[in-house]
Amino acid sequence: MSPEPAPSSAVRTAFGAVLRDVVVFVGSLTVLGALVGFLVRGTEGLWGALIGAAIAALFSLTTAVIMYATADKPIHVTTASAAGAWLGKMIVLVVVLVVLKDQEFYDKVVLFVVLTLAILGSLVVEMRGLAAARVPHVEPGEDPGASA
């Protein structure tokens, strides 16, 4: 019987699997969204789907990469990294939306649908992956009754 992996390696393994699954999901949604967008709204639908998928990829993949990279770091490093990345993503999102606001080369409805599906789907993929992970909630050998 093999020994239990250290908690940080189990967390890193879980986030690695989530990262892989998110890449596959967003990639598949990009192809499918671009195809459907093009068939429904032509070139404008194609651009709407690609922009929506790009925004979703930025958000989903950045979060998964940060969680993977900080899996073995103290919680304050992980939290600061996630909060900083969230702030950066919000700034990028606002800039992209301001630039695209008055543009006519893409379909706004297709962008909205693809972005919404990507967000919901990525959340499902992340939650499913992390719920299935076998990560202990306490360090082995730790006395929960001991005061810090």
TrEMBL record:
Keywords per UniProt: Membrane, Transmembrane, Transmembrane helix
Transmembrane region(s): 22-40, 46-68, 80-99, 105-125
Protein name per Swiss-Prot or TrEMBL: ATP synthase protein I
Domain of life: Bacteria
